[in-house]
Write a structure and sequence with these properties.
The mean pLDDT is 94. The chain has helices at residues 11-23, 34-39, 71-82, 121-126, and strands spanning 3-7, 27-31, 49-53, 87-92, 109-113. The protein has 4 helices and 5 strands. The protein is globular and about 40 Å long. The chain starts with a strand and ends with a helix. By secondary structure, it is an alpha/beta fold. The protein has a 5-stranded parallel beta sheet with strand order 2-1-3-4-5, with helices on both faces.
C-alpha cells in the first residue's frame, strides 16, 4: 500500500483529506506542525508522497528562520536537502506567485490551491 504524509495544521481539513486519501486506498499519516516534521525528518523515506501545507505556525524550531519564507517553504527546503527525489504536493490558500520559492521550477513537485472542491479530486489525481 502506498503511504502518504499529510503536513497540515487545520484540524477540519485534516479529517477531510485523510478520509479522501484513505478512501482511495492509500495509507495516510498526519503531522500537524513543523516541529513534528523536523523531529521525524529521517523517517520521511517511508512515504511515497508528502502533501505539504504552506501556511502554518512556525513551531519552536523555525522561530528564528527567514521571515520572508512561509513555514511550509522552510520545511520544503529541509525535506529537499535530505530527499531530493521525494514527490511533494504543495497545498496553499496563498498565491503561489507571492512565495519565495517558484515551485513550478522544482522537480517532483505539484501545486494545488485551496480551497479544494468537495471531493479533493484534484489532490487525489496527483497521488501516484
Amino acid at each position: 500500500m502506498k503511504k502518504e504524509l499529510l503536513i497540515e495544521d487545520d484540524r477540519f481539513l485534516i479529517d477531510d483529506l485523510r478520509t479522501f486519501i484513505e478512501f482511495e486506498g492509500y495509507g495516510c499519516e498526519v503531522y500537524t506542525g513543523p516541529d513534528e516534521v523536523l523531529d521525524n525528518l529521517n523517517g520521511l523515506a517511508e512515504f511515497d508522497v508528502v502533501i505539504l501545507d504552506i501556511m502554518m505556525s512556525r513551531g519552536s524550531y523555525l522561530q528564528e528562520e527567514d521571515p520572508t519564507f512561509e513555514t511550509g517553504e522552510l520545511l520544503y527546503l529541509r525535506i529537499r536537502e535530505k530527499y531530493p527525489e521525494l514527490q511533494i504536493i504543495i497545498i496553499s490558500a496563498k498565491n503561489f506567485a507571492d512565495m519565495q520559492i517558484n515551485f513550478s521550477l522544482e522537480d517532483n513537485v505539484a501545486t494545488i490551491s485551496k480551497p479544494f472542491d468537495s471531493t479533493a479530486s484534484e489532490l487525489i489525481k496527483r497521488l501516484p
